[in-house]
Amino acid sequence: MTVMDRVEGATSPRTGEADWARALTSGWAILIGILIVAAVARFYQIRLPLVDAFSWREASSAMMAQNFRDGSWNIFFPEVDWTGPGPSYQGREFQLFGYVVALLSVPFGWHDWLGRLVAGLFGLLTVFSLHRLVALIWDEVHAHLTALAYALMPGAIMIDSSFIPDPAMLALVTLGIWLFVRYWVTGTAYLLPLAAAAFTLGALAKLPGLAAGLVVAYLTAIWIWRGEWQRAKTVLLFGGGALVLVFGYYAWAVYLGNSYPPYHVAGSGYIWDDGVWRLIEARFYLGSARDTAIWWFYGYPLLLLMAVGLFSPYPDASGGRDPALRFVPLVWLVAGGMLYLAAAREINNNPWNFHFLHVPLAIFAGRGMLLLATFERGSIRTPAALTRLGIIVALVLAASTLPLVRVMKQPIAENAKLMGDRLAAFRKAGDLSIVVSPDVGDPLAIYYSRGRGWVFPQGGGNTDWSVFLKDDATAIAQLEELRRQGADWFAVAKNAQDGQDRIFMKHHAGVIAHLNATARLVEDTDKYMIYKLRRD
Question: Mind listing the pLDDT tens digit for each residue in 467-476?
Fold first, then answer.
């Protein structure tokens, strides 16, 4: 051994390379383990029919994907089946998610689990991109714990395993932000167009993803403040191109939705529709958001971890990291807050829209895990810290992940599926059905009937289609109008109720009496009734 080998801290190049390789392998091994955990959580019930808490949105997403496969492959004309014989084009997000499902269904056949598979794969991409993003802005330990928090987060699991486009949005936006931060740190030229492409596709996949552009604006402003004008100009050029594509597509979506009956453009309840005073009177819908957070998406353990991470000092810049990067999670959270204020009613009515916030919330939950495991003293690798971390993870699993996912995955729309399956057995090709699902307005029964028809009361436009019509006379008039338009079947779930908790069988007993007098009761079970409508 030489003198240099004995000097404290001296390391031979070969030993240094071995240590670096071991550290890298260990870090990747941990990430792979977290990805496996995330995959198990998201694919565990992959064959569950679309009968869970998100059945309404899943049914529409599945219809649009299936119509690409069975109808036109034109991605700019998404079409649902619940507005009559068609065409039923609607103003929707860019159908990247549904198109991928449709393409996969060509070799594999049509299966509900294909949608859950694609969603789960996008969820795994989010885990990976989030891990690499946090490793850049903070460090590897925070990256591991952030990815673990996201992998175990009930809301993220539920959304990432549902037949809806939100997982594609978050995965691509997170990938885009990670690639942009890498570009910001390294200056590697090819990363910027890749980041712009991923981010643009994410915002097209669902518009709320555009709000993450605040992170790009923040880091670009740092460059401008530091006088790095040329780099900032390049980002602004790519950003401008992205905005043109996103706003161009959504302008088309609005036009399309306003050009075909029932003149439906997805999304409502924005501040420019309701006004500020309605938002204030509703107390910003914080009661609904609180209930979603506690009983569905996070639970008390994760909420505590998020609070600890959010309100504690952020980690110091280390390893040569730029101090400005420390605040990226906070900027993303602020973007989520702005999004919430702009669309509070829409987000609470359709809680999968909270998915945008799951990136910063997972980061702060991961930070909370580290703080509570180490008390900011020493390494996470000590036996005591690892023991505390194990207890934290066990509590998250026992009090958040397992019970809340179980609640959201309950087959609450099972009666709608059963009703749809029976309609599929009864109906002939071209028959149209009117359906009243357990959750009024849910088109799931039409989806499983493998045909077209209407939800009842009719949906679309500015109508509140989650509420029954005011009286039997109005409902019968609408029923008869749909009969004149070609309706062949009427099916109602016996537990159907509206947004005001009124039961259809009681509120519209007169409609049932009218059907008994003018239609043929084909099947009457303890779950639903199916009538064959007579033509005049």
Answer: 899 899 999 9
